[in-house]
Amino acid sequence: MLRDAYQAAPSGIRRLGRQTTARDFRAVNKIMLGEAPLLEKLNEHGEIKAGTMAEAREAYKVETWARKIGITRQVLVNDDLGAFSDLARRMGQAAAETEARILVTLLEAGSGNGPTLSDGKTLFHADHGNKAGTGAAISDATLSAARLALRTQKGIEDRTIRVTPRNLLVPPALETTAEKWLASIAPATAADVNPFSGSLSLVVEPRLSSATRWYVTAEPGEIDGLEFAYLSGAEGPQVESRSGWDVDGVEIRVILDFGAGFIDHRGWFMNSGA
């Protein structure tokens, strides 16, 4: 009897990134301009002074990931149940799992502090104002601190920018705890009000290695953060098959041109948990 195949767990972290395309395999440079200069009051001579705008840059690149599998003609002939007829779709699912693991590995680089950015500091750093000073469990106090840290983020010109906390990213071990703190309740007193009910969306990523670390993020459409790219014209996995000449059978391969990087730290906050 042919058993159902295992289904890959959905990728939670993918929801928190922005998808784009790259023209080639060279580094994708993301340039960000700072805020426009503030206006100044004109003096009595009516002179308008020139201002400047700062810029920042982050980069990542698309790389090729591939795998193939061969099936002999004898196996195909003996395949009464059609077990290999759906193999191309399963190879595509394996590519999706590869993408999810790449994104999680990127997030957890640097011993959990994320990749090193162009300023020489990791994604989550005290100087970036997006990392809890002391790890603690999810609670009113810690969620409030995370929201405050994002709300008070400063731009390149050291001016407060718009960052709206929208997502709470957790590993499976914290799913029940997170659901409790985001649940809607009918409070009897003002002290029982849940301020985070409806304000944050729960995102569970089963591939996260830490059972305690959690994150609060903004929407990827509001501010730059995690970005992933496919090669232009080859979005998603490319699955191909051919009949073997040297080998009596069929070969199926999947090629994925995919890359990811963090291009700004201001939309992500991390607490190492407890």
From TrEMBL:
Pfam families: Phage_capsid_4
Protein name: Mu-like prophage major head subunit gpT
